[in-house]
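User: Can you help me understand a structure? I only have the sequence.
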Amino acid sequence: MANHKSAEKRNRQSQVRRLRNKINKSKMKTAIRKIDEAVVAGSADEAQEALNKAIPVIAKTASKGTIHKKNASRKISRLTKRVNGMSAA
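Assistant: Let's start by predicting it. Here is the structure, written out as tokens:
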């Protein structure tokens, strides 16, 4: 447990940031799951719509520092590739 005033403050800040990161990551995972469900169901329109909603959520998660910028880019790229591949097939 923290003993100094500054360490106590740092602990409070860390808890707030952890919760904020958890919320952002949860929103991102939900958006990705909706794309996956649409792809499994085989509906290209729903998958495209879910992708269009998920891309800003993933980008925002990266801009807040919850995930790395390149990690977000990789996720967006792979999801786009899945959805476009589904539409072509």
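Now, to help you interpret it: The first helix runs from residue 5 to 41. The chain is about 85% helix and 0% strand. Let me know which part you'd like to focus on.
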